Amino acid sequence: MLRSVLVRRAAPRVVLARTYATPVEFKQPKEDPQLGDYPNLPPISAQRRPAKGWWNVQERRNFGEPLPEQAEVLSLWSPDVFNISRESALKQFGIAVLVFLGFTMAVRASVPERPAVPRNYPYDGLVKELGGLQENKAAVYEPEEE
Description:
The chain has five helices and no strands. It is mainly alpha-helical and 146 residues long.
């Protein structure tokens, strides 16, 4: 009896291990069958086009020109397209941080020291003469109990 219980418990684990071990491959279709005879244009951002010589200068398009499938993402209203490598961006950011830190250190070094010593009052900074610590605290009002 114990053997049959162990076999029943071990069998589902093996089956689950087999079902999750096979990877699922997703392949993008080369041509969308829903487009029909509409041209399959390459996804090129409108920011890469020259600024002048268009019927619609704001969108950089001519009248009747077909739009790519992802026209909203590729329009001029999408995030900017940068032509900079990651290494160059990190180098420029590092230079900017070093310039900022150098400027702050130069300002800190150029500030002169205080010409006088701060005042030092007797009796714990005139606590007794100013009324004490308890008298100077803000009043705390508690709600009345009904």
